[in-house]
């Protein structure tokens, strides 16, 4: 097959203990999946089913640097547990959903908060706030076969050594299996999909020169410099 121009590269993530790479197909993100974060964003978490938005696979960044983006003066950090799928499907049963998980990683859902606020006010989509270049720093993937399926454990984000976000995976409103099951009723999931499962309270602005350190207990740590 001949292409009119060279096709785009396939974004990948490293796998701990392996020379293989995890090819990324799609990146789904769960909105407001921790009660305290929902409250700090002005919402009532008890009244909402899970909702989703997407980042683009080429938003991934593995360099350890987050370039401060254009068209914004208010970029926020959001640390998240990331789920990597090795099997897909539709209408997956909640009690079978974890069988589809390949592994887990630590991710940052970097957000142009001022642009998101403007989009919300106008009832518009969030892509300009969420799916911009380098907006998804994600660590290496740790195999589920090695660590199991974390349902509890600290999730934290420090900026320049000062803790900003601190929560526990047990505080997720919708648990990992429930998220996968619900999402599979909206989209056909496939191997290579990533799911960012939401962030605890404490999100805040970053500036150039900041050092971000996100940790999920039992999964790993992601260190990113804002440049």
TrEMBL record:
The Fumarylacetoacetase-like C-terminal domain, residue ranges: 27-226
UniProt keyword Metal-binding, yes or no: yes
Pfam families in the cross-refs: FAA_hydrolase
Domain of life, per lineage: Bacteria
GO molecular function, one term: metal ion binding
SUPFAM superfamilies: FAH
Entry keyword set: Hydrolase, Metal-binding
Name under which the protein is recorded: FAA hydrolase family protein
Gene source species: Jiella pacifica
């Amino acid at each position: 097959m001949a292409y009119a121009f060279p096709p785009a590269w396939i974004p990948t993530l490293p796998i701990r203990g392996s020379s293989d790479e995890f090819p990324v197909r799609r990146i789904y993100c769960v909105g407001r999946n921790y009660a305290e974060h929902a409250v700090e964003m002005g919402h009532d978490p008890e009244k909402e089913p899970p909702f989703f938005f997407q980042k683009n696979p080429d938003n991934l960044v593995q360099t350890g640097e987050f370039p401060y983006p254009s068209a914004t003066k208010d970029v926020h950090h959001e640390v998240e547990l990331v789920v990597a799928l090795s099997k897909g499907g539709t209408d997956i049963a909640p009690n079978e959903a974890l069988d589809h998980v390949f592994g887990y990683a630590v991710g940052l859902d970097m957000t142009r908060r001022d642009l998101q606020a403007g989009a919300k006010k106008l009832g518009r989509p969030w892509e300009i706030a969420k799916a911009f270049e380098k907006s998804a720093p994600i660590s290496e993937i740790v195999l589920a076969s090695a660590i199991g399926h974390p349902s509890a454990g600290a999730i934290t984000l420090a900026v320049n050594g000062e803790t900003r976000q601190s929560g526990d995976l047990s505080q997720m409103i919708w648990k990992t299996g429930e998220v996968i099951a619900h999402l599979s009723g909206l989209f056909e999931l496939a191997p290579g999909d990533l799911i960012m499962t939401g962030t605890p309270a404490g999100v805040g602005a970053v500036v150039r020169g900041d050092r971000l350190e996100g940790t999920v207990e039992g999964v790993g740590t992601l260190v990113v410099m804002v440049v």
